[in-house]
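Progress against Task 2.4 (sequence-to-structure conversion) is shown through the following example record, which the project officer requested during the mid-term review.
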Amino acid sequence: MAFVAVSHWTSTEISDEMISTANEKCIPLIMRVGASGVQMVRTGELSLCVETLYPDAAAAQTAQAKIAEIREKLAKDFSMTMVSAYGGAVIGRLFNYIKSNRKGGGVNRLYRLVRR
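Structure tokens generated for the chain above:
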């Protein structure tokens, strides 16, 4: 069963440069330690959360030492403070990344998939 880890952060500033660096350097670091997906979500002017998806709880546990190092580096390099962190098993999920509403695709296709 997939596992998600979520950490909440605050900072004195969140600049375009910080966001670019996070996308180019931090996310790939997290992916290399076993994550199957990472999202950084801006939750306020000076806050964000990092949602990390792992294939299972064992992969998340194995990655924790490296994740702690990455978090320490983020806190130092970007003057950020981790407010909270928690995780758990994924018990339901549906993503709609379909960009087209062409016949047979988009919302109509998603609806047919969900109804099955």
